[in-house]
Design goal:
- By secondary structure, this protein is mainly alpha-helical.
- It has one domain (34-197).
- Helix content is 59%, strand content 8%.
- A hairpin with a 2-residue loop joins β1 and β2.
- It is globular.
- 23% of the residues are buried.
Length: 206
C-alpha cells in the first residue's frame, strides 16, 4: 500500500466458535488517544482561524457565506447518502464518532478554508497553480490524520485518491461562488459518479 491507512491491524483478538471451543486471534490497534485527537483537530482549526484573521480574510465572510454553506451541506449530504457505505470516517471528541468529526469538519474547518481560498483566488493569471497549491497543501495536512487513525478510508476509497478529490473540490468551491446554479448541476453529476464508482447502495424513501 502506497499510503498508510488509519488503523494498522497487526494483532487482533477475535473470538470464534467451533464445536464449543473458542479461538482468539490477537490484533493490536494503533490509534491516537482522545486527547491527541482533540489537540490535532483544535490545532488545525486555530491555525486556519489565525491565518484567516491575520490575512484579513474574515472581512469577506458575508460575500462568501453562500459558498461556505454549500461546502457544509455537501458534507452533510455525503453522510446521508453514504451512511451505510462510508468512504472515509472521521474520529472526533468527545465520542470519537464519525458524525462528530464530520460536523466539526463541516462547520469549523471547511468554512474557514473556503474563506481563505476564495479571498486570495487569482482573478487572471496563476489559477491552475493556485488550485494545485491548495490541493497539495490539503493532501499534506491530511497525512498526519490518516497516519494516526483520525481518518479511516474504506469501501474502495484510499488516501492517494485525495490527490484527485481536492482539485475537484477547490474547482467546485470557486465555481459555486461565480456560477452557483452550474455548480449544483455538476455536484449532482459528481455525486452520481461517486455512487457508481464505489458501489454505494442508495435506498429511496419513497
Amino acid at each position: 500500500m502506497l499510503f498508510p491507512q488509519i488503523i494498522k491491524r497487526d494483532n487482533l483478538y477475535e473470538k470464534s466458535s467451533n464445536g464449543g471451543v473458542f479461538f482468539t486471534k490477537k490484533v493490536n490497534y494503533i490509534m491516537t488517544s482522545s486527547i491527541e485527537v482533540q489537540k490535532m483537530n483544535i490545532t488545525l482549526s486555530i491555525i486556519l482561524a489565525v491565518c484567516a484573521g491575520y490575512l484579513k480574510a474574515w472581512k469577506n465572510w458575508r460575500v462568501f457565506h453562500p459558498t461556505m454553506l454549500y461546502t457544509s451541506v455537501l458534507v452533510l449530504l455525503y453522510n446521508f447518502i453514504c451512511k451505510d457505505h462510508l468512504l472515509w470516517k472521521h474520529r472526533s471528541i468527545p465520542l470519537e464518532s464519525h458524525f462528530a468529526g464530520e460536523l466539526f469538519h463541516a462547520f469549523a474547518i471547511l468554512p474557514t478554508i473556503t474563506v481563505l481560498y476564495l479571498t486570495f483566488y487569482p482573478e487572471k493569471h496563476g489559477r491552475l497553480r493556485y488550485i494545485i497549491l491548495w490541493s497539495v497543501l490539503s493532501f499534506a495536512a491530511e497525512f498526519p490524520f490518516a497516519a494516526t487513525g483520525m481518518i479511516v478510508f474504506e469501501n474502495g476509497y484510499q488516501y492517494w485518491m485525495e490527490l484527485l478529490f481536492y482539485p475537484v473540490m477547490y474547482i467546485m468551491i470557486r465555481l459555486h461562488h461565480i456560477r452557483p446554479l452550474v455548480s449544483y448541476g455538476l455536484s449532482a453529476v459528481i455525486i452520481l459518479l461517486m455512487v457508481w464508482l464505489f458501489k454505494v447502495p442508495v435506498q429511496l424513501a419513497f
